Amino acid sequence: MTFLWIMLAAIVMYFAYGLLAPHPNRRVFAGELPEDRVENGYLIPHEVFDPDEQSLFQRASASVEAHTRALKKHASRDDETYHEPHWGHTSAMLRGTLRIDKIKNLPEPFRVGLFERERAYAVVARAGTQKDPDLGFIASRLAIKLDFPTPLPNVYAPAGEANELDLLFAAGNPGNDGTDHAFFARDGHQVAMAFGLKPPSLSTLKTLANWRNIATLLNARRRATELTAPLRKAPANQDGWAGMPYYSFGPYALGEGAMRFALLPVKPHKVAEHDRAKMDFAAFSKKNMDDWLASGEDAEFILAVQLATPDCIPEPGPQDPPKAVMAAEYCDLAWDETASPYVEVGALTLSTDTAINTAEIWGNIQYNAWNTFPSMRPLGQLFRMRKHVHSAHSNARISHLYGGNPGELVGKCPFSG
């Protein structure tokens, strides 16, 4: 009986501590925030920089790097079917063309950066799949690197610039206002908390000591699995990689405004029904890619942009900042696609006859959402974190899993045969 009373007291103390103690992983927008600015019907985003962001980013980057270096050395070099936890597996490296040919669909102030003029760009695309063992979701991804005629900021270049521009996408569900057109986590605090659980450390115990942290983590896992559930069930799971829509997931600047962008498939690409939760996903994805390559049929997508307007951003709740801050800082925010529809600005074509052997060195090509124009930079704390985390993760992957040298392929991308 004494043991039961001790257990009951411990449970009460645990819940009381979580209720009364500060919630270190909940972001609070302190101080006075500006009112929303709107110009010509479009919302001007407002970023908020927390004083502890850099230490937050460093902790998350160190955790991700340590987790990667704990994996088997040279695993990807020795086994081209290797599926790295959290990052996934590359199904193919593809060549193609991105045509920016409909900038007239954008209002004049937003014809900047990539959309300043109409022209065609050679691209290399990395098609891959991710099966996350902790969050329990599976997603297809596309990373596009453009051959750009002038130097742009580059995270991996020793000089800080390269003639490359990167666009990163993850697959979502088709249709207007799909719930997974946004990210499953809101800000850097939530992601850093999740990263801090592995490898186990003192920070792991500190995180688990507060039940509100556990509730946040479970909510993120629930959201991730719910958002990707339709992709695991027939008939939705019959859409192969070339028949899926892809989304940028987070907000980006576009001049003085904010945008999200998407790749929308022009034609279907069907594969056999399957249970994604039980399969050897890397092998299955590779087979689907090989079947598409053998078909000789190009993959075609529309490049579309959604602009932030006051009407497409939800009304702030009691503890939310103004809409301009939400648009920039809430990475999990659903923008109403009826109030602000995606508009076509270009087209992407990826060819079956120009695929690159992923077993060769080109699997080491590095991408980052910040390899772009300042006028098209990612917005918000989560993207500011991803700049550092993706760089640390990519460098660790290249050196530890591939046995390569980080940054060695900057400016050497095989845009042509």
Detail the topology: elements first, then pairings.
Layout: H1 2-20, E1 37-39, E2 42-44, H2 53-69, H3 75-78, E3 89-100, E4 119-131, E5 138-153, E6 161-171, H4 188-195, H5 202-208, H6 211-228, E7 246-247, E8 252-254, E9 257-265, H7 281-295, E10 299-307, H8 323-329, E11 343-350, H9 381-401
Antiparallel strand pairs: 1-2, 3-4, 3-11, 4-5, 5-6, 6-7, 7-9, 8-9, 9-10, 10-11
Helix pairs in contact: 2-4, 2-9
Question: TL;DR?
Answer:
With about 425 residues, the protein is an alpha+beta fold. The protein has helices spanning about 1-20, 55-70, 75-80, 190-195, 200-210, 210-230, 280-295, 325-330, 380-400, and strands spanning about 35-40, 40-45, 90-100, 120-130, 140-155, 160-170, 245, 250-255, 255-265, 300-305, 345-350. It is globular and about 55 Å long.
Q: What does this molecule look like?
A:
The structure is a single chain. The chain has 417 residues and is α+β, with helices and mostly antiparallel strands. It has a single domain (41-401), classed as Catalase core domain (Catalase HpII,  Chain A, domain 1), CATH 2.40.180.10. Helices cover 28% and strands 21% of the residues. It contains nine helices and eleven strands. The strands form two sheets. It has an eight-stranded antiparallel barrel with strand order 3-4-5-6-7-9-10-11. α2 runs parallel beside α4 and α2 runs parallel beside α9 (381-401). The protein is globular, with a radius of gyration of 22 Å. The model has no long low-confidence stretch (mean pLDDT 83).
